[in-house]
Amino acid sequence: MFGFVGANGAGKTTTMRIVMGVLEADSGEVLWQGRPMTFEDRRGFGYMPEERGLYQKMRVAEQIEYFGRLHGMSPAAARTATHDLLERLDLTERAGDPIEALSLGNQQRVQLAVALVHEPTLLILDEPFSGLDPIAVDALAGVLTERRAAGVPVIFSSHQLDLVERMCDSVGIISAGRMVAAGPVDEVRAAEGRRQLKVVVRGAVPGWADDLPAEITHQNGVHVLRAAEADDQAILRAAMSAGTVEHFGWEQPTLTEIFREAVA
After folding, report:
1. Whole-model pTM above 0.85?
2. PANTHER family annotated for this entry (predicted)?
């Protein structure tokens, strides 16, 4: 599972549209299994665009089945797959409802079912969690995790970086059309120069850390010191001499912090 993140206008949606053949690239190429991607390859993909592509007057089950037929499924196979997805996505009771009668969260579930109905070889989802409540997010995340476990690669873009950090194996951060950080989530967070030493000291007098290569904030008698690559033992000794050390340790930055740094 690959999380694709970047500021608005960075190029996430454009990249996904190029992969799906909706747009043509000015340069470069898209490879699948080590070779140039073909139309037949794309027919096997599941795609959830940023602008949801559902027919508002069509009923839920009819819609999912229809898209299955567009992917070449037989009527019986499309019907069976639709039934299974309605059950898995908790939409069985809404099967006969028109799309326009559904909440945003349920419409998102139908859109995901449309992307999954033909058992895709790859899932590409553009902001699938946008606007969803926590329960709907958990439901969609559970289905995507199942697809990953079944061997289906999943690429999705999101501004919810805590969700990307929790769900994804790898991440790519794009800024102004260029990838500025990419790799396994743990490796991106642990890259050289990114970790910080955090020290929390209570009861220290102001100015105790003025000579240390660090940033310090304080409130209500508690001082929080943060430093990049530094002599942690020297800082610890200074902190112990200044007051009561309540926390001491190296911390990796969150994806949110890395994102802010990367796009600045």
Report:
1. no
2. ABC TRANSPORTER ATP-BINDING PROTEIN (PTHR42711), ABC TRANSPORTER ATP-BINDING PROTEIN NATA (PTHR42711:SF5)
Q: Which CATH architecture has domain 2-189?
A: 3-Layer(aba) Sandwich (3.40)
Pairwise CA distance, residues 100 & 233, whole Å: 62
pLDDT in tens, 25-44: 999 999 999 999 999 999 99
Answer for the pair 167, 140: CB distance below 8 angstroms, yes or no: no
- For residue 99, CA distances in Å to 45, 61, 91, 116, 232 come to 23, 10, 12, 17, 58
Cα-Cα-Cα-Cα torsion 77, 80, 84, 90, nearest 10 degrees, comes to 120
pLDDT score, position 130: 86
Mean pLDDT of 211-237: 87
Q: What dotted CATH number matches 196-263?
A: 3.30.70
Q: Domain-by-domain residue ranges, the chain?
A: 2-189, 196-263
- What is residue 192's predicted lDDT score, i.e. its pLDDT? 57
User: Which pair of structure tokens corresponds to residue 69?
Assistant: 């037929």
